[in-house]
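Weekly sync, protein design subgroup
Attendees: M.S., D.O., the rotation student, P.L. (late)

Item 1: inverse folding check
M.S. brought a backbone from last month's batch and wanted to see whether the design step gives back something sensible before we order anything. D.O. pointed out we never logged the input encoding, so this time it goes straight into the notes. Structure tokens as presented (481 positions):
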């Protein structure tokens, strides 16, 4: 049974957050994040629906319209939140896909919940999509949805985008359900990844785990009349123009100056902004800063490090441990090096509004992105977008997707603490002329490749590939018309 919508986005979360109003009623506010911004214009133009979890366990609210988009909530029980979301998504897949920085848990009960919840998302998407519609499935929580959807609706054009890395086969092979994940993804016409290396890893996994003929990002499925699936890179980006403009607002510029003043007007402000996640290399960054203080190459009072660590996945064991480790480390650094007048590390375990984020970016001489593995890292691109003054230096881990595009950043290997320290010192000492030259090149790149362009290029490639390589779907649509 076909629904009404020509474009259906399926993501773990809806693009809106529930807000309790003072009068006791509830309303929905658009959640911060690039995906919503990127898709909003297309969703409005194409008559779009968004299928996702509303963020709290229990029965789902009825479908509703918000921000010009039809929102279709999926219900998750408290147990499913534990097993599908905190368990298989964030306790198995997240560490496995990020180079096993911590050990993934392999539990059959988590997998069963993942399968059941993916079925529920697929069912809802199948109900909403019009005949011949496009369905765009997002991210690692929903890798089985493309296949489940195709089984129900062979007429659809199905895309999938993986926001996190896809690991080398040697790591992926650990997963007891690796074949089912590959089969799930191959239900799509087009599978998008952040980096070319991720697409290659996936293509190789198709060969190794499924023995499929897969070459140069093309996977042929002989069992499905030779249907061909394409795997390619589509590096995600940010709404460059919106952040550029926000950072030019007088109140934001004034707030940036005020932040520096509140920090005690140090000569150098260093900044880290991350979800509090073990993939982000926060401890490596703190270690480098601590050693620089210890060596006397950097002095408290002259330099201050601001570390915003947004609370994240607080019920998952490794995140509880990480928070403790970060807080002990910050406490030790400040206990050892801070003075009554000056603090070494300003650690902020909460999230901020967009204006404050833009002001922080503007206030920072050096932005530290030291991820151990990161699909893209939007914070790096946001720093660049905010620096309309063409100042500031981006220190960027080579293990981020962003490193493939932002060649004018100072690249580091976060495991190489000496190298990281030297690069921080180099960033602090960089002439305004060199910093300006680098920042201009970075801004050109991000400005030309913004999130709107990302969404359009994925959807165009999907339409083209679907028309050329999916004989079954074309037949299904013809048959029904
Ligand atoms: C996943 C992949 C990939 C953070 N704190 C606050 C805040 N943020 C915003 C940032 C940025 C976003 O959250 C985080 O995006 P990242 O890309 O840095 O990292 P993940 O959350 O791990 O995202 C990643 C991404 O998906 C997209 O595909 O790049 O590799 O892991 O936009 O600004 N925003 C506000 N207050 C905060 O305190 N307003």
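Designed sequence read out in the meeting:
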């Amino acid at each position: 049974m076909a629904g009404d919508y020509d474009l259906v986005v399926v993501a773990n979360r809806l693009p809106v957050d529930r807000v309790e109003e003072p009068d006791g009623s509830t309303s929905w506010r658009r959640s911060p994040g690039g995906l919503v911004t990127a898709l909003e214009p297309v969703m409005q133009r194409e008559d779009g629906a968004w299928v996702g979890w509303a963020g709290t366990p229990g029965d789902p609210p009825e479908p509703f319209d918000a921000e010009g988009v039809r929102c279709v909530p999926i219900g998750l029980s408290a147990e499913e939140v534990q097993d599908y979301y905190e368990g298989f998504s964030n306790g198995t897949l997240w560490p496995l896909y990020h180079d096993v920085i911590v050990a993934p848990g392999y539990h059959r009960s988590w997998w069963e919940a993942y399968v059941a919840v993916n079925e529920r998302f697929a069912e809802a998407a199948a109900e909403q999509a019009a005949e011949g519609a496009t369905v765009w499935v997002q991210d690692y929580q929903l890798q089985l949805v493309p296949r489940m959807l195709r089984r129900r609706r062979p007429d659809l054009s199905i895309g999938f985008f993986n926001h996190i890395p896809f690991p080398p086969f040697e790591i992926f092979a650990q997963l007891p359900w690796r074949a089912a994940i590959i089969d799930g993804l191959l239900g799509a016409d087009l599978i998008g990844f952040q980096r070319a290396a991720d697409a290659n890893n996936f293509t190789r996994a198709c060969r190794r785990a499924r023995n499929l003929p897969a070459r140069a990002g093309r996977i042929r499925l002989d069992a499905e009349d030779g249907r061909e699936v394409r795997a390619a890179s589509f590096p995600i980006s940010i709404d460059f123009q919106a952040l550029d403009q926000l950072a030019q607002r007088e109140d934001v510029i004034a707030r940036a100056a005020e932040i520096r003043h509140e920090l005690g007007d140090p000569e150098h402000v260093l900044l880290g902004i991350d979800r509090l996640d073990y993939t982000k290399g926060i401890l490596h960054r703190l270690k480098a800063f601590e050693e620089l203080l210890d060596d006397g190459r950097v002095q408290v009072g002259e330099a201050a490090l601001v570390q915003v660590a947004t609370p994240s996945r607080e019920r998952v064991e490794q995140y509880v441990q990480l928070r403790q480790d970060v807080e002990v480390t910050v406490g030790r650094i400040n206990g050892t090096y801070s003075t009554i007048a000056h603090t070494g590390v300003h650690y902020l375990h909460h999230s901020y509004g967009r204006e404050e984020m833009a002001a922080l970016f503007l206030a920072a001489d050096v932005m530290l992105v030291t991820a151990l593995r990161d699909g893209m890292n939007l914070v790096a691109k946001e720093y660049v977008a905010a620096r309309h003054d063409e100042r500031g230096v981006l220190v960027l881990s080579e293990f981020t997707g962003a490193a493939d595009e932002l060649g004018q950043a100072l690249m580091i290997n976060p495991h190489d603490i000496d190298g990281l320290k030297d690069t921080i010192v180099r960033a602090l000492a960089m002439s305004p002329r060199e910093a300006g030259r680098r920042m201009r090149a970075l801004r050109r790149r991000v400005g030309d490749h913004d999130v709107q362009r990302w969404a359009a290029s994925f959807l165009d490639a999907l339409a083209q590939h679907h028309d050329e390589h999916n004989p079954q779907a074309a037949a299904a649509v013809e048959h029904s018309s």
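Discussion: The longest strand covers residues 129-138. The chain has a mean pLDDT of 94.
Action: P.L. to compare against the previous round before Friday.
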